[in-house]
């Protein structure tokens, strides 16, 4: 156990030496406290705090290399943190055993930029794969899954608007359709948290909007906690409840999307730290 950190009950997470760090109230599902992640000499995250609530969609924005993917991976334990505390769905990720991390990952769905479907399998079977964690033995072919799971998987495909393509091989679908199948597969996991790493980076603007709309709908309807990395400021402003900006591994912005102008959001992408800019300098379009 990491001696720097202590947990005192479900609603109390503290980092030793920082009395003001009690966090994780009733509906805080994701909590990162002073998280630092180093890869050798590279500081990918530098003391990042983040809280995300149930039914909240938070978008992480930032230049390439600012630490967005690293933060997502620290949330589900794919990366161990160098310092700090992470709690997700009631599990202290930074202190979790391998078995606890396996359990946690059933609750935390992950949506990837490149969909990660099995191309030669049907859409239905790809979705069913999301429910494998609930079964004791592996399955080969959609027909070998219990009927109730097939019905559930079809419902998820219906929800993403693709029930009529259930029997089609996944590699015959467009990118946008494949990402919708991947989201249906994640829903089959019955997650409480959904992490999405640039889920629309490979899609055209129309399909990107469809996928963001879908993520927003499942966030609200299923009361999911969604953390999503994006590079498209307009999509973030359109669908996020809250926008968190990272720069050089540090959090430089954390505001409700409705309170942000486009110019303020774009500031995250400027090479010069807006806080360091002289007061007389132009702020760019808003
Ligand atoms: N496995 C790793 N080993 C070494 N360095 C890494 C590793 N993963 C990330 N980094 C470094 O950590 C920093 C943050 O990378 P990260 O991938 O989190 O950025 P990002 O904001 O997600 O970038 P992008 O928008 O390009 O995906 C970068 O300097 C990167 O080179």
TrEMBL record:
The record's PROSITE patterns line, in alphabetical order, gives: ABC_TRANSPORTER_1 (PS00211), ABC_TRANSPORTER_2 (PS50893)
Keyword Cell membrane assigned to the entry: answer is: yes
Q: Which UniProt keywords apply?
A: ATP-binding, Cell membrane, Membrane, Nucleotide-binding, Translocase, Transport
Query: One of this protein's Pfam families, by short name?
Result: ABC_tran
InterPro entries to which the protein is assigned, alphabetical: AAA+_ATPase, ABC_transporter-like_ATP-bd, ABC_transporter-like_CS, ABC_transpr_PhnC, MetN_ABC_transporter-like, P-loop_NTPase
Gene Ontology molecular function, alphabetical: ATP binding
Q: Where is the ABC transporter domain?
A: 30-273
- CDD domains hit by this protein: ABC_PhnC_transporter
What SMART domains does its record include?
AAA
For this protein, the record's NCBIfam families field holds: ABC_phnC
- Protein name (database record): Phosphonate ABC transporter ATP-binding protein
């Amino acid at each position: 156990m990491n001696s720097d950190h202590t947990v005192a009950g479900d609603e109390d997470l503290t980092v030793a030496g920082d009395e003001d760090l009690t966090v994780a109230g009733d509906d805080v599902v994701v909590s990162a406290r002073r998280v630092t992640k180093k890869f050798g000499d590279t500081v990918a995250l530098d003391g990042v705090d983040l809280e995300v609530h149930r039914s909240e969609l938070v978008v992480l924005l930032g230049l390439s290399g600012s630490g967005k993917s690293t933060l997502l991976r620290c949330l589900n334990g794919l990366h161990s943190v160098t310092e700090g505390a992470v709690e997700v769905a009631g599990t202290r990720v930074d202190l979790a055993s391998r078995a606890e991390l396996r359990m946690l990952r059933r609750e935390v769905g992950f949506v990837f930029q490149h969909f990660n479907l099995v191309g030669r399998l049907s859409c239905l079977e790809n979705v069913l794969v999301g429910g494998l964690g609930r079964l004791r033995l592996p399955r080969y072919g959609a027909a070998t899954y219990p009927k109730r799971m097939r019905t559930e998987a079809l419902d998820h495909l219906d929800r993403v608007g693709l029930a009529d393509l259930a029997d089609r091989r996944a590699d015959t679908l467009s990118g946008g359709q494949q990402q919708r199948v991947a989201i249906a597969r994640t829903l089959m996991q019955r997650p409480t948290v959904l992490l999405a790493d640039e889920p629309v980076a490979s899609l055209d603007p129309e399909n990107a909007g469809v996928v963001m709309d879908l993520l927003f709908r499942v966030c609200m309807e299923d009361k999911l906690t969604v953390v999503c990395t994006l590079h498209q400021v307009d999509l973030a402003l359109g669908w996020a409840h809250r926008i968190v900006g990272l720069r050089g591994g540090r959090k430089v912005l954390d505001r409700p999307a409705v309170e942000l102008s486009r110019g303020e959001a774009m500031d995250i992408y400027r090479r010069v730290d807006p806080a360091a800019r002289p007061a007389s300098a132009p702020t760019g379009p808003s």
